[in-house]
C-alpha cells in the first residue's frame, strides 16, 4: 500500500469511526437527540456533526424527527435511528430447536421462526434448511435484501471463532469440525459470523439494556453462562468461556466424568425426564433418545409440578437448586452481583426459581460477600440466542471494533 | 482551578505519562535499551526521549550503562533502571504468618522478614508491630527513606479497597471493618495501599514475567484464586474476586455452609491436620485452635507422606484432587489455559501435585476443550503475597493508571 493510499484509508477509518460514534450516541438516546447534544456528547465539532449527520441521513441510517422546543432560539430537530436503515438476521442452533429472527436497526424483531432440530441433524442439510429459512424470513418481512448487514449464528461450544467452525459440541452428534459459518455464507450470499450461544445471549441482554456487569445463566439443552465484565461481553482467549457443565452442585446424580453431582448431567432435559419417569411423575412412554419427545416430556413435567405433583416438583427443584449453587460459586469467584436467567428453557423452568430458592441464594451469598446479590429473568425470552446472534451483527454498525467479525 | 492552572496540570500529566511510558519500556528491556530504540518503541520524538531520559537520570530512576556497538556510527549508550531509584515495601497479612519484603525498583528483594501471626491478633497491635517491622526492614536494607514509594498490604478478603478497610475475613477473628490502610499510614508516615492477597499474588507473578492470561491458585490458610485476564489483573467490581471456598469438589467433608465437599473446608490446614490425626497419620497432641501448632502439624503431615506414610498421603492427595477439580472448573468457565500454583503453603504441598494428578487434570480438561492446559509453580515462592503487595506499589512508577491507589 502506498503512503498516500494508507493515509486515505486511515482518513476513511477516522470518518467511519466518527460515524460509528454518532450512530451509537443516537441509538442510546431514548427519544432522539439534537445535533447540538451530539456535539456535546461526542466532543466532535458542530461542523463535523452536521457533516456526518448529513451522510447518515443520506445513507438512510438516521432520520430527522420532531422538533424539540428549547428555552431560547429556534427549536432543535431531534435525530433518531431509521429502523429500516439496516437489518440483521440471527440463527440459534440449539440441539433441540433452531430459531431464526430478523431484526431491524433498533432491535425490533420483524420476523421469527422456530423449528425442532432434526433427530440426526446433518450439517449439510441444516445449512441448506437454514439458507431456505433465511430467504423465507426476508420474504415474510418484505425488506430490502441489500440493507441486511449479515447473519449471526449462535451455536453450542466449543467453537473456533476465527475459522467459523463448530468444533465438537457435546449434544450434536456428527458435528465435529463443521465450517458452518462459511457454508452458510456461501448458501445465502450474505456475510456471516459465528459465536457461542451463551455469549450471544449475554450480548443480547446487554444490547437490550441490561446495565452493569452480570452473569447470564443459560438454560437450554445444555447449561452455560455468558459474562458481562467491565461493561463488556467476556469471551475468553478462544471465545469459549462459559463452560460449567462439570461444576459439582451436589444433585446426587453420577456423571460420566467420574464425579457425582455435576451441574450439566443433572440439568439436561433428558435426565430430568428420566428422573420424572423413575419417580413416577411421568408415564413410561417417552423415548429418551428422541429430543422432541424429551422436550415435550420436560414441559409435561413442569405442568405436573405446577399442578401439585410432588415427585415432579422434586425433580425440578433439585435442578434449580443446582443452578443456583453454581450461580453463587461464579458470582463469588468473579465478584459479580447480578444474575440474569434465560435461554430456551427459561419459560418452562422459571416458576421453579421460587422466591424461597432465590432468597436462599441471596442469604448464602451475603454470608460470603459485603454486597447484595440480585437476580432477574431474561428481558428477551426464548429467542435470546438468535436475537443475540443478530445483535452481534448490528454491533458492526455501532462499534468500530466488533468482537466477532463477519465473513463476507 | 483556573484555565491556565488546568492547562499546566494537564501538561504536567502528559509529561508524567511520557515519563511512565519510557520507564516502563526501560523496565521491559532485559539488557538495557538505547534512546533510539526508546523512540521507536514509544512513538515519541528523539528530542522528547532525550529530554525525558535526562529528567529520569537526574531523578535517579535510570542510569546510563554500557555502550552497545552498532553496525555503523557511534555505539549507543544503553539505559537501565537504577535499582536504587525507588523502593517499595510489601506486607502480607495471612492468618498464619505475616511477611514483610522490601523491593528495589527492579523487583529484587533487599530485605525480608516473616513472623507467626499472634494467636488472637489485635488490629492495633498488628498495626504497631507492622510499623516497627517496616522501620527495621528500612534499617536492615540501609536505604534512603525518601526513596520509598509506599507500602502495600495484601490481606484476606472481603476488603473495601476504596476505604482501605478489611471487612470480615473468615480466618481473622475480631478483624471486622478494620481501617488497616490508614492506620498503618499514620503509624509509618508512608503512603499505603491495601489489596486482596490472591490478587496481589497474581500481580506479583505477572510483574515477574508470567506472560499471557492465567489463573493463580493461592494455597494459604484459605484458598483463593487471582486472575490475569486479557493481560490485566482481574479484580471484579469491588476488588473481591477470587473467592472459591464453597466450590464443591467432592472431598466428602461436610461444610458448615450446608453442602458437603466444599473446597475451602477440606483444604484448610486445620482440617488436614485433623484428618491426619483421625486416620492415624499424626499423633494426638496438636491443639487445633493453635495456628502455629496447626502449621507445624501440616509440615509434619507432609513429611510423613513423603516418607511413605499412606494415611498422610491420602489426606493430602484428597486435598490436591479438590484443588485440581476447582482449577479445572475455573479454567473452563473462563477459557483460561494456564494455571500457576503458589502461596504460603505451596512449598509444603507442591510434592503432592504429582505428575499423575496433573496429567489427570489435563486429560479431563482436554475432553471439554480444544485447548491444552498447562500448569506451573510460583516463580516467587512463599513471599508471593508480600512481593505482590510491593509490586502494586511499584506499579505507581510504571503505570499512569495503577489499579489500587496509595493513600498518602
From TrEMBL, chains A, B:
Annotated keywords: Kinase, Transferase
What are the recorded GO MF terms, alphabetically?
DNA-binding transcription factor activity; kinase activity
Q: Has the keyword Kinase been applied to this entry?
A: yes
Q: Which InterPro entries match?
A: ATPase_NBD, HTH_MarR-typ, ROK, WH-like_DNA-bd_sf, WH_DNA-bd_sf
Task: Give the HTH marR-type domain ranges.
Answer: 18-64
- The superkingdom listed in its UniProt entry is Bacteria
What is this protein identified as?
Answer: Sugar kinase
Q: Which organism is it from?
A: Microlunatus endophyticus
Amino acid at each position: 500500500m502506498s503512503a498516500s493510499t494508507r493515509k486515505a484509508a486511515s482518513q476513511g477509518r477516522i470518518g467511519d469511526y466518527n460515524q460509528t460514534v454518532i450512530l451509537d450516541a443516537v441509538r442510546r438516546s431514548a427519544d432522539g437527540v439534537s445535533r447540538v447534544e451530539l456535539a456535546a456528547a461526542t466532543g466532535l465539532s458542530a461542523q463535523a456533526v452536521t457533516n456526518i449527520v448529513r451522510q447518515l441521513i443520506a445513507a438512510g441510517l438516521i432520520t430527522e424527527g420532531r422538533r424539540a422546543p428549547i428555552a431560547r432560539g429556534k427549536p432543535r430537530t431531534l435525530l433518531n435511528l431509521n429502523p429500516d436503515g439496516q437489518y440483521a438476521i440471527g440463527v440459534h442452533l440449539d440441539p433441540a430447536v433452531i430459531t431464526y429472527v430478523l431484526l431491524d436497526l433498533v432491535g425490533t424483531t420483524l420476523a421469527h421462526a422456530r423449528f425442532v432440530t432434526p433427530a440426526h441433524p446433518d450439517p449439510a442439510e441444516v445449512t441448506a434448511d437454514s439458507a431456505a429459512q433465511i430467504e423465507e424470513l426476508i420474504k415474510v418481512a418484505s425488506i430490502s435484501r441489500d440493507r441486511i448487514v449479515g447473519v449471526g449464528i449462535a451455536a453450542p461450544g466449543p467453537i473456533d471463532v476465527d475459522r467459523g467452525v463448530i468444533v465438537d459440541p457435546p449434544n450434536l452428534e456428527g458435528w465435529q469440525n463443521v465450517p458452518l459459518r462459511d457454508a452458510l455464507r456461501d448458501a445465502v450470499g450474505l456475510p456471516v459470523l459465528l459465536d457461542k450461544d451463551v455469549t450471544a445471549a449475554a450480548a443480547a441482554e446487554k444490547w437490550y439494556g441490561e446495565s452493569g456487569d452480570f452473569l447470564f445463566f443459560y438454560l437450554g439443552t445444555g447449561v452455560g453462562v455468558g459474562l458481562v465484565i467491565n461493561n463488556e461481553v467476556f469471551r475468553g482467549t478462544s471465545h469459549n468461556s462459559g463452560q460449567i457443565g462439570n461444576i459439582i452442585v451436589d444433585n446426587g446424580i453420577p456423571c460420566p466424568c467420574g464425579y457425582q453431582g455435576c451441574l450439566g448431567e443433572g440439568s439436561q432435559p433428558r435426565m430430568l425426564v428420566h428422573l420424572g419417569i423413575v419417580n413416577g411423575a411421568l408415564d413410561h412412554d417417552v423415548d429418551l433418545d428422541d429430543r422432541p419427545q424429551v422436550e415435550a416430556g420436560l414441559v409435561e413435567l413442569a405442568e405436573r409440578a405446577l399442578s401439585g405433583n410432588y415427585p415432579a416438583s422434586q425433580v425440578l427443584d433439585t435442578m434449580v437448586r443446582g443452578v443456583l449453587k453454581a450461580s453463587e460459586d461464579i458470582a463469588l469467584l468473579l465478584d459479580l452481583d447480578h444474575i440474569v436467567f434465560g435461554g430456551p428453557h427459561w419459560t418452562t423452568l422459571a416458576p421453579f426459581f421460587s422466591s424461597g430458592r432465590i432468597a436462599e441464594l441471596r442469604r448464602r451469598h451475603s454470608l460470603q460477600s459485603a454486597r447484595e446479590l440480585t437476580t432477574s429473568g431474561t428481558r428477551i425470552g426464548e429467542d435470546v440466542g438468535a436475537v443475540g446472534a443478530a445483535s452481534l451483527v448490528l454491533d458492526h454498525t455501532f462499534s468500530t471494533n466488533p468482537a466477532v467479525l463477519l465473513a463476507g
